[in-house]
Amino acid sequence: MRGNGGSKGMRLIARICVAMAASGAGGVAFAQDQSFAGGYQATMTPELAARLKAADLAAGANFFERKCSQCHDGERTGSHAKGPFLWNAFGRKAGSVAGFEFSDAMKKTGVTWTYATLEYYLANTERAVPGKTMNFPGIPDDALRAAVVMHLRSMNDKPPALP
Ligand code: HEC
Prior knowledge:
The protein starts with a helix and ends in a 9-residue tail after the last helix. 47% of the residues lie in helices and 0% in strands. The chain has 163 residues and is mainly alpha-helical. The site of heme C has 28 residues, from helix 5, helix 6 and helix 8.
């Protein structure tokens, strides 16, 4: 998919058109969509905080077991597999843990893993980190994604305070 700028551009234009049509206020929709076009955008919002508080922890753990654990070890004594181990991911700089060969794309994000940055990454991994090597597209369901982020929170010596 990478290097295929044409179809990517077309998809972006299509998305902007849909957003404009849906909102009826083209200018605003365009401005909002632009924030996704360039680089890593993630902020804590009251909406996200509420979703995290309401998260179904069992669903998050279950999804992690079924999908993420194919590539990630989530144990305290974790070791790297296809993906890096995720214990203590919160507060860590993306692409920084020793002993795992990250993509340049991941190393260059400059992101520290927080509720907001993890949530944004897991929404659409290629949008967040174009060129990443994690072969998993994302979790489109908002509630499930929040549940998985809350499960990641539990994989910590000191789980961070809730937002
Ligand atoms: C097919 C294998 C695979 C699957 C499935 C997968 N990952 Fe990954 N993951 C990776 C790889 C490989 C990387 C390193 C990406 C890079 O360097 O670009 C990674 C990186 C990450 C990182 C960044 C870690 C760091 O230290 O910077 C997080 C967080 C993460 N994955 C979470 C998840 C979660 C949560 C799931 C399940 C929803 C998941 N991954 C599913 C392979 C996978």
